[in-house]
């Protein structure tokens, strides 16, 4: 049985090589000249001269503003809910709770695992 597989594989490889050679031989030759010569470079004709400004639907003007890299960021709003003003230092800090924070609202007792 192994001999049949080897024969089949060899026959498939031989037919594949013959197929590759036949397609190479029947391929259409380039018309540019003798083998090894490169085809001539074809450049498109120059565009026609258009008077006036060009209007392209792809390129459109984008409104320009201050450069975000070189300009200072805008200040945060004075009465924003995430910030509270520190009057002594004149700086805005995020409001963070300090120390232990009691839970808001009444706490529920733990669930009872005893069935009554």
Automatic annotation (TrEMBL):
Ranges of Basic and acidic residues composition bias in the record: 79-90
Signal peptide: 1-27
Stretches the record annotates as Disordered: 27-116
Biased composition regions of type Pro residues, renumbered to the chain: 36-48, 103-116
Keyword Signal (UniProt): yes
Keywords tagged on the record: Signal
Stated name of the protein: Uncharacterized protein
Organism whose genome encodes this protein: Oryza barthii
């Amino acid at each position: 049985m192994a001999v049949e597989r080897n024969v089949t594989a060899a026959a498939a490889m031989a037919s594949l090589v013959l197929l590759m050679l036949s397609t190479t031989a029947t391929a259409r030759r380039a018309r540019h000249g003798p083998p090894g010569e490169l085809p001539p470079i074809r450049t498109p004709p120059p565009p026609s001269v258009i008077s006036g400004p060009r209007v392209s639907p792809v390129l459109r003007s984008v409104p320009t503003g201050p450069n975000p890299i070189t300009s200072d960021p805008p200040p945060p709003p004075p009465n924003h809910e995430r910030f509270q003003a520190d009057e002594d230092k004149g700086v805005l800090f995020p409001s963070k709770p300090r120390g232990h924070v009691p839970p808001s609202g009444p706490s529920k007792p733990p669930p009872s695992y005893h069935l009554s």
